[in-house]
Each structure stands twice: as C-alpha cells, then as structure tokens.
Amino acid sequence: MSEPVFERDPSDPKKKEVAPLLKLALELGPLLVFFFANSRGEWLVEKWPALGSFGGPLFLATGLFMIATAIALSVSWALTRTLPIMPLVSGVVVFIFGALTLWLQDELFIKMKPTIVNSLFGAVLLGGLFFGKALLGYVFESAFRLDAEGWRKLTFRWGLFFFFLAVANEVVWRNFSTDFWVAFKVWAIMPITILFTFTQMPLIMRHSLDEKPAE
C-alpha cells in the first residue's frame, strides 16, 4: 500500500512527529523572512543586486516569502514523508497570490492573502463540523487529548477566530501603511493567537482525557 501524501490522522500510530521547536521554526520562519526582507529590502539589494529584479521591498519580501515557504514544506516532507495540511493550504495560497503580486507588481494580492487563508481555514473547520468532523485534531493532537465534544467546541471557536483574523487583516491593510501591515502580520497576529489559545484552556481542561476535573 502506498504511503499517504498528507499528514496522517492524529490517532494513527504510524504518524511521524516533528520536534516542537523545529515545527515552530518551519511555521514561523517564512513569516520572519517576509518581515526582514520588507524592512531591510534596500540593504539586501545592495548586498545582492540580483534581488532587485523582484522590485521594491514588499515585492522582494514576497519572493523570498515564497522561497522560504517552499523550503519549509520541503523540510517537512523530508522529515516525515508527508505534507502538513494547514501549512500546505497556506503555502498554495502564498504561491498563487505571491505569483500574482510579482507578475502584476501589485501589492493588493499579497495583502489579501491572509484574508483568503484565514477565511478558508474558518470555512474548512466550520464546514467539517457540518459534516460531523472536528478537524482541529490535526493541529493540536500533539498538545491535547480531548473527548469528542471538546474537539467539536474547540473547532467551532477556532473557526470563528479564523474569520476574526480575516476581518482584522482587511481592516489593517485597507486603513494603514504597508509597513504597519507587515509589522501587524508578523508581530501582532501571533500574540493575538497565543492569547486566544490561553482563553480556551478552561474548555480544554474540562474535556481533557488525561486529566478531567470534577464537575
């Protein structure tokens, strides 16, 4: 039987795990490359003039973001022989909108990318619930073991949260400068996400299979 291309089900004992710090680096690395290239674009072009073919700092950042994303997915494949579903979906949108950004030299497409990705994730999570599937287990299975009701509730909340992130991106890119949008994308989204995750801990503890407190 051929090996699956996408990451295995969380309950599959054959699923290969990636070290948490390495997994974090693979997920955040491309974003840090994007921020650095946008903020130090002129310096990078001075050091490597060939990079100037991308265009201005945001276009250079977009090109390097695409390359870094491809490298991160390749490393994941090399380590596990599977592709992580959510980073892959995000990567596909990065490649499509990044290519449009570079081809048309229009910032609109890369700025809309987070809106599209977050809306897609929200729709997938809520749509999965409609069909009786709590898909969030693919993201958090290494951190939590919850009962079915817990996964359903957590998936629903994360679905709504992704739509919140989509709206926030639209508000920021349409009303603030490009540099502010880049800083928001890199330095604000992660703290907001971490804060949201912490607010879900009471629900997680109530439905934990490892240590469920008395009602």
Tell me what the structure shows:
This protein starts with 19 loop residues before the first helix and ends in a 9-residue tail after the last helix. It has helices spanning 20-39, 41-47, 57-80, 85-104, 108-130, 137-140, 148-175, 178-199, 201-206. With 215 residues, the protein is mainly alpha-helical. It is built from nine helices and no strands. Helix 1 packs antiparallel against helix 3, helix 4 runs antiparallel to helix 5 and helix 5 (108-130) packs antiparallel against helix 7 (148-175). The model has no long low-confidence stretch (mean pLDDT 82).
Would you spell out the secondary-structure blueprint of this structure?
Layout: H1 20-39, H2 41-47, H3 57-80, H4 85-104, H5 108-130, H6 137-140, H7 148-175, H8 178-199, H9 201-206
Helix pairs in contact: 1-3, 1-8, 3-4, 4-5, 5-7, 7-8
Give a quick precis of the structure.
With 215 residues, the protein is mainly alpha-helical. The protein contains nine helices and no strands.
Quick tags:
215 residues; 72% helix
Instruction: Briefly note the structural class of the backbone.
Output: mainly alpha
* Shape, principal axes of CA atoms: globular
What is the subunit organization of this protein?
single chain
Unreliable parts: none
Compute the CA-based radius of gyration: 19 Å
**Major sheet characteristics:** none
Note the total helix count: 9
Alpha-carbon distance between the two ends: 46 Å
What does the average pLDDT come to? 82
Helix content: over 70%
